[in-house]
Design a protein that fits this description.
35% strand, two-stranded antiparallel sheet, alpha+beta
């Protein structure tokens, strides 16, 4: 297994030249489902590394590893993100090289932003990424998806 950690530096300071990924959280209806699954894996194995394995290796890996995050889509809405820590090379039983996106255990809730269905993952520019919710707002009940989408469309969320 190969691990890749890349950081872009200029004059000792980190450059805000990064990109995010967006991915459907298949099988989860809400952020709590993702949190539950990840908590269960860590409870079963305290050394468990949170890693999402995907078939394609991102071409923009250095930008991802310079501050990028994986934004999760639940039922058509981006609702949360996790920081991308590194990319691991994972060789499947079929001998095919895959990318293991290693994630921070902290799930950060974001403002709800509608996202149409797609397959795989897509790049998400920082300017197009939803803002994080303020501390304390992440424990509030989520709005119904249709209401969140309508508010997001008119720029209220």
């Amino acid at each position: 297994m190969k691990s890749t950690t890349i950081s872009t530096k200029l004059g000792g300071d980190s450059v805000d030249n990064y990109v995010n990924l967006v991915k459907l959280c298949v099988g989860a209806e809400k952020v709590e489902d993702l949190q539950f699954w990840q908590d269960q894996r860590r409870a079963a194995d305290p050394d468990h590394v949170l890693r999402h394995v995907t078939r394609m290796w991102p071409k923009r890996d250095s930008e991802l590893l310079n501050g990028g995050a994986l934004y999760w889509v639940f039922k058509g809405m981006i609702l949360a993100r996790q920081e991308i820590l590194r990319l691991d090379e994972v060789i499947g039983e079929d001998g095919i090289r895959r990318c293991g996106i290693v994630l921070s255990p902290e799930i950060i809730r974001t403002a709800a932003v509608p996202r149409r269905p797609f397959q795989g993952w897509r790049y998400l520019l920082p300017a197009d990424s939803p803002p994080d919710l303020r501390k304390g707002h992440d424990t509030e009940d989520a709005l119904p998806p249709a209401l969140s989408e309508a508010l997001a469309e008119i720029g209220v969320l």
